[in-house]
Structure formats: structure tokens, C-alpha cells
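Quick one, C-alpha cells below:
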């Protein structure tokens, strides 16, 4: 497989063979529970067979609608938050060939709105699209999330102002629940192009549905190859035990480390194309595992940049961290260091070497240093940057978190904790239905 895991730098020093042997049966039980759909949250396991049983009609519809958007618009604004945008952003930034701005080399640029409540951010988007043709893809499973609802409200009224009701309806694409919510109703009434987020797939596991695939197709990427990568990984992993299955090995090793007091996992990359991928991973792991007073806290660093900031803490600070480094074996483009015309520049030892080679040494140097400093380092290797590998990587992490949550005896498919702030916010905004909470919060002041 194009995604593999290397435990050389944790086994022995941080994980004893007996620990591995003793947790093995728990990992296999957790995996069986997932596969047999007998564990908590099993009504949300639609993602598990999704890539292998992909609905070809749905895929064709995604491609058709993406072509229509590409024909009519310079910009697609994806409106969504959490699982309703992180996967698309992760994929677009991972596959992006231009180092400076996400999506900027594409015919139709993909921007994201509704990802927070900043007026400045929204105004920047409004200014940017002023003289451009654009479409909106509003993505929300619940249809009630406040950030995308506000962004949609503002952007839709601008769209209608610019194009009129009739043409605006050709430029709005809704991705939401099959039946419930006002957005579904609006999509039906106005005949918008629309996609369904299946009931049995939670937001953070939805990247391989139209949620992630439509924006990726609009950005010009081969979504069939993404599904192919995920399906090959999903298919092969079905028959594999802990010894062969990279997701199970990952779930196993991080749980052994967690039990030994390594409570924070730092996902480290050595390529900015993986920066947004880490954001997708943080939501997937944070919402799936952080509950019932338990769970590994998922954090991320972007090396070598962060070696000059957080690197100090990782090397030398409090010892409760373990690192998971993603290594791209063939990163593609490789610049060579030419001969210097200034003899005392101090770079002579690098002449003739390439940037990828130097980056590789930076990674190995960091890995050895961190292991010596008491940080266990798991290495996940991917062959290259491609749609196929992206599909594999998405599925690798989804499968691992399902198993990992079960090993730690939590329901990895719910997220009750995110409601607390929402209730307070609604009460403070005096939303009807929250009167009692409003009174309670006002008494705090
Ligand atoms: O797609 P929705 O319903 O707008 O939700 C967006 C995100 O908000 C959350 O519910 C958390 O508030 C996530 O689980 C989800 O991905």
C-alpha cells in the first residue's frame, strides 16, 4: 500500500514487546466490533464501506455539477465549518501545485467561508469576488450551524443582488441532510443542485462524500482516483490483522503510549502541503476521542518552520508528547543547490545536493533528536503527493480512529461536548427556546 507505518523509533525504547503482545487482542476486538457494527455509535458507520461500494451515479452527478461550476464561475465559495470544509481544504492544499496560495493555479478557485465569525474575513471575500463570477456551495449536515448560516445569508443576498433570483439559483449548490432542515426545503423549492450527506456518516467522516469531493472536483482534481485510493486501502485492510494493517498498528501504538502518560499527539509534517491535512486530522481525532474525561489531545506542527519555535518545547519541555511524523517519500519537484560564486557563503557542503535531500536529513535529524529527548516518534510514510495517495491517507486515519476510540472505550462517533458552548452562545444571543439559560448566564454577571 502507498501508506505504511514505521514503528522502529517507538518499539523497544518506548513500547515493550510484551505491551504490544498484550494489547493486540484488544485491538483485534475493537476492529471486529467496528466491522460487525456492534459497538457504540454503529449507526454512523456509513463511511466504512463507502469507498468500496461507491454509488457511481452520485460520482457522475458530482462531476457534472463540478463541470457546470467550472464553466460558469471563476470562484467557488464553499460555506461550511468543521467536517463540512476541513476535508476539502485538506485535499486541495495537499494536491496543490502552487506553493503560495491554495487553489490559485486552478481555473476555478475554491475559497472557504463560514469557518469562523470574522467580519474582516467575510468582507475580504466579498471584496475579492466583487468583479468575478462565482457560485456558492453551502455544506451543513444539521443545517443549523451558526457560522455557515450567517455566511450563507450574507453571500446569498450578494449573489442575488448581482445575478437576480433566477440565475442565482443556478449558482447555489446545497449539500445537506436528505430531508430535514430549512436548507433542504429551500433547495427543493428553488430547484438548486443538491447533494445528500447520508444519515449514517458523521460530518468529520464525510470527506469522501460530495462534502469533500465536489470542491475537490471543482479545483480540478481527479476524484475517481481519490475514491480508488480509499477503496483499495479499505478493501485490503478488511482481511488484515494487527501485524499487517497500518491503521491497526497506529491505533495500537498510540493507545499504548497514551496509557503510559503520553497524552498529547503532535502530527508533524515536513511539507506545507500537509498543513491543512493536519487540521482535518485534528477535528477527526479531537471530536472522536476527547470525551468522558479521556483521550489523546491532537496537536500539529509544520516543520521545519516550527523547529524554530515549538521545536524547543518538543525537544526539551514537559514529557507528555509523542509525535507522528508524515514522511512523503517522493515529494516531486526538487530544486538543486548550485555552485556558489561567493566562496565564504558557508553553503559549499550543500552544493549539488537537492532541497528534498536536505529536507529528508532535517527530518531524520529531528527524529533522532526527539527520540533522544524522550519523545516517541511514529512515522507514517506515503509514497507521493497524488489523488490516489490522498484517498488512502483519508481512509487510513478514519479506520484508525474508529478502532482507537473503541480501544479506549469511548463512542468515537458522537460529539456531545461541542454543544456546551453553542447553548451558552445561543442563550447569550437570546435565541428563542433558551430563556432559562439566558437568565442563568445573566446572573453570572
Ligand atoms: O455540518 P454541520 O451540521 O454544519 O456541522 C459542522 C460541524 O459542527 C460540529 O457539529 C461541531 O460543532 C461538527 O461535528 C461538524 O463537523
Amino acid at each position: 500500500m502507498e501508506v505504511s507505518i514505521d514503528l522502529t523509533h517507538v518499539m523497544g525504547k518506548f513500547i515493550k514487546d510484551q505491551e504490544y503482545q498484550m494489547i493486540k487482542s484488544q485491538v483485534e476486538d475493537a476492529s471486529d466490533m467496528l466491522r460487525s457494527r456492534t459497538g457504540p455509535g454503529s449507526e454512523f458507520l456509513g463511511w466504512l464501506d463507502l469507498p468500496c461500494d461507491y454509488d457511481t451515479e452520485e460520482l457522475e452527478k458530482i462531476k457534472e455539477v463540478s463541470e457546470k461550476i467550472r464553466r460558469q464561475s471563476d470562484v467557488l465559495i464553499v460555506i461550511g465549518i468543521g467536517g463540512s470544509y476541513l476535508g476539502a481544504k485538506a485535499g486541495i492544499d495537499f494536491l496543490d501545485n502552487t506553493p503560495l496560495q491554495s487553489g490559485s493555479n486552478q481555473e476555478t478557485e475554491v475559497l472557504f467561508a463560514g469557518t469562523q465569525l470574522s467580519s474582516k474575513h467575510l468582507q475580504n471575500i466579498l471584496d475579492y469576488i466583487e468583479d468575478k463570477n462565482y457560485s456558492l456551495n453551502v455544506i451543513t449536515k444539521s443545517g443549523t450551524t451558526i457560522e455557515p448560516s450567517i455566511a450563507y445569508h450574507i453571500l446569498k443576498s450578494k449573489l442575488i443582488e448581482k445575478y437576480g433570483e433566477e440565475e442565482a439559483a443556478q449558482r447555489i449548490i446545497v449539500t445537506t441532510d436528505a430531508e430535514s432542515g430549512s436548507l433542504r426545503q429551500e433547495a427543493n423549492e428553488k430547484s438548486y443542485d443538491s447533494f445528500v450527506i447520508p444519515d449514517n456518516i458523521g460530518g468529520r467522516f464525510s470527506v469522501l462524500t460530495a462534502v469533500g469531493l465536489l470542491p475537490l472536483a471543482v479545483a480540478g482534481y481527479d476524484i475517481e482516483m481519490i475514491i480508488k485510493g480509499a477503496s483499495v486501502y479499505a478493501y485490503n485492510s478488511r482481511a488484515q490483522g494487527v501485524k499487517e494493517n497500518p491503521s491497526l498498528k497506529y491505533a495500537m501504538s498510540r493507545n499504548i503510549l497514551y496509557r503510559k502518560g503520553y497524552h498529547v499527539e503532535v502530527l508533524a509534517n515536513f511539507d506545507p502541503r500537509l498543513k491543512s491535512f493536519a487540521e482535518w486530522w485534528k477535528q477527526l481525532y479531537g471530536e472522536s476521542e476527547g470525551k468522558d474525561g479521556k483521550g489523546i489531545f491532537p496537536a500539529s506542527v509544520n516543520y521545519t518552520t516550527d523547529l524554530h519555535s515549538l521545536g524547543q518545547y518538543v525537544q526539551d519541555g514537559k514529557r507528555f508528547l509523542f509525535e507522528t511524523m508524515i514522511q512523503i517519500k517522493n515529494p516531486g519537484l526538487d530544486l538543486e543547490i548550485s555552485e556558489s560564486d561567493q566562496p565564504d557563503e558557508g553553503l559549499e557542503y550543500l552544493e549539488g545536493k537537492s532541497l528534498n535531500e536536505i529536507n529528508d536529513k532535517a527530518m531524520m535529524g529531528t527524529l533522532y533528536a526527539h527520540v533522544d529527548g524522550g519523545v516517541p516518534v511514529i512515522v507514517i510514510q506515503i509514497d507521493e503527493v497524488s489523488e490516489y495517495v490522498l484517498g488512502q491517507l483519508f481512509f487510513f486515519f478514519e479506520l484508525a480512529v474508529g478502532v482507537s476510540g473503541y480501544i479506549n472505550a469511548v463512542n468515537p462517533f458522537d460529539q456531545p461536548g461541542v454543544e456546551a458552548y453553542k447553548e451558552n452562545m445561543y442563550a447569550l444571543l437570546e435565541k428563542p427556546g433558551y430563556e432559562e439559560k439566558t437568565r442563568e448566564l445573566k446572573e453570572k454577571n
